[in-house]
Amino acid sequence: MTTSSRIEWTEQTWNPIVGCTKISAGCKHCYAELMARRLQAMGTPGYENGFALRLIPERLSDPLKRKKPTIYFVNSMSDLFHEKVPVDYIDQVMDVITRTHWHSYQILTKRAARMARYFKARPVPENVWLGVSVENRRHGVPRIDYLRSVDARIRFLSVEPLLEDVGVLDLDDIHWVIVGGESGPKARPMKPEWADVVRIQCEEQGVAFFFKQWGGWGADGKRRAKAKNGRLLNGRTWDEMPAHAPM
Questions:
Q1: 222-232 confidence digits (pLDDT tens)
Q2: Is residue 86 predicted with pLDDT exceeding 80?
Q3: What count of other Cβ atoms lies within 10 Å of the Cβ of residue 48?
Q4: Number of Cβ within a 10 Å radius of residue 168
């Protein structure tokens, strides 16, 4: 099953896996976990066990049925490189991606080391955008070097939820950076200067910058009832996409 996405930087989501486990600070208030619980309560197929990891092979063929070129976010409700996802299942996902060359696929992971090991012996399909989450210095920033070691056509960082000043970033061979604050009832605030220091480094290093959302807190440091609370940073929207991207 693929679904239209409300995520600003993609078009559709494709979830041949659902469920995950927490491994770093960015996982604390996981949006996918909350959504999985809601879907379980609604009786939605695939979520009978809530957020427990589950492979759904019957969804593997879904992109083959769509002929319109589409940008897919792969496993918005999981992590393709979770340690419990078998290598042969990842191979099956990659086979579908390779066969559907008219689509583009955004794969985002917090398991950067496993991602790098997987692609050490395999080429990254040309239509894959490969990304890692960078929520803080301790857990997130070290993932960038793993990503840089993989020969992907487009490499990107999802700096969301941005939980602190991530400091000086080496963006060599990185093509796109997304920044956003945390949403949800327990969202942690993002300070404007944290987001702006990332934007400035993108500008200085020639990397496309995309500001996704403030999340549950505004630029003024006040809690908001509305989840996304606007997309303006320094009075404007930032919707830059990587060079040669189809969007």
A1: 877 554 458 88
A2: yes
A3: 12
A4: 9
Fold classification of 2-213 is pyruvate-formate lyase- activating enzyme (3.80.30)
pLDDT of residue 228: 46
Identity of the amino acid at 61 = S
Tell me what pLDDT residue 227 has: 43
pLDDT, one tens digit per residue, over 88-133 is: 999 999 999 999 999 999 999 999 999 999 999 999 999 999 999 9
Q: Is the peptide bond before 125 cis (omega within 30 degrees of 0)?
A: no
Q: What angle do CA 148, 213, 3 make, to 5 degrees?
A: 80
Spatial separation of the C-alpha atoms in residues 36 and 109, rounded to whole Å:
18
Per-residue model confidence (pLDDT) at position 222 = 81
- Which residues make Cβ contacts (< 8 Å) with residue 61, sequence separation at least 6? 96
Determine phi and psi for 35, rounding to 5 degrees: -65, -40
Q: Are 141 and 169 in contact (CB under 8 A)?
A: yes
How far apart are alpha carbons 64 and 96 in whole angstroms?
A: 7
Instruction: State both tokens at 86.
Output: 């078998």
Q: Are 72 and 63 within 8 A, CB to CB?
A: yes
